[in-house]
Amino acid sequence: MGVDPGLTRCGLSMVEASSGRKVVALDVDVVRTPANQPLPQRLLVISEVVEHWMETHRPDVVAIERVFAQQNVSTVMGTAQAGGVIALCAAKRGIEVYFHTPSEVKAAVTGNGRADKSQVTAMVTRILNLQAAPKPADAADALALAICHCWRAPMLARMAKAEAVAEEQRKAFAARMKAAVR
């Protein structure tokens, strides 16, 4: 499940990955909340829709865009709060959550970490073999997040395994050094 968090528009997507880089879009939607609605109510709406999505689609993992600094502090706060609500929904179900930066997503999908929205949308449309480009951009971004995670997950798993092996080796070395000092 890929999520482009936001208070006004929150993109949700569900994809299925198979061997290689084959990814199929299963569902995509954008949750909208009115800007004049109180913040707790907006977060509740997002939470309820995400809970329904998770219940319906039963994702293995959730990939959420990592909030990066933006010029508008209230926008970044709202985006972070929406992302937190989504991560909480996943955690309550025991679903792993991964965060990807916008540049990681753009690089994975287009090959360019500085790609613009139209380039991301065009590549998402091509990768998923869609008849029409997903709209609005939040839908395309949610699909891009899901694609990014599907393609990066094997590398992330290898890195985690390598880090675990390195930690075990560090502990074994420290134990040998401690024994040698005695």
From TrEMBL:
Cofactor binding note of this UniProt entry: Binds 2 Mg(2+) ion per subunit.
Positions annotated to bind Mg(2+) 1: D4, D138
A Pfam short name: RuvC
Catalytic function, reaction form: Endonucleolytic cleavage at a junction such as a reciprocal single-stranded crossover between two homologous DNA duplexes (Holliday junction)
This enzyme's EC code(s): 3.1.21.10
Record keyword rRNA processing present: no
Active site positions, chain numbering: D4, E65, D138
InterPro entries recorded: RNaseH-like_sf, RNaseH_sf, X-over_junc_endoDNase_Mg_BS, X-over_junc_endoDNase_RuvC
Top-level division of the source organism's lineage: Bacteria
One Gene Ontology term of the molecular function aspect: crossover junction DNA endonuclease activity
Annotated localization: Cytoplasm
CDD domains found in the cross-reference section: RuvC
Residues reported in the UniProt entry to bind Mg(2+) 2: E65
Keywords annotated in UniProt: Cytoplasm, DNA damage, DNA recombination, DNA repair, DNA-binding, Endonuclease, Hydrolase, Magnesium, Metal-binding, Nuclease
Coiled coil: none
Main localization of the protein described in the UniProt heading: cytoplasm
General function of this protein: The RuvA-RuvB-RuvC complex processes Holliday junction (HJ) DNA during genetic recombination and DNA repair. Endonuclease that resolves HJ intermediates. Cleaves cruciform DNA by making single-stranded nicks across the HJ at symmetrical positions within the homologous arms, yielding a 5'-phosphate and a 3'-hydroxyl group; requires a central core of homology in the junction. The consensus cleavage sequence is 5'-(A/T)TT(C/G)-3'. Cleavage occurs on the 3'-side of the TT dinucleotide at the point of strand exchange.
Family classification: Belongs to the RuvC family.
Subunit text: Homodimer which binds Holliday junction (HJ) DNA. The HJ becomes 2-fold symmetrical on binding to RuvC with unstacked arms; it has a different conformation from HJ DNA in complex with RuvA. In the full resolvosome a probable DNA-RuvA(4)-RuvB(12)-RuvC(2) complex forms which resolves the HJ.
Protein name per the record: Crossover junction endodeoxyribonuclease RuvC
The organism of origin for this protein: Mycobacteroides abscessus MAB_030201_1075
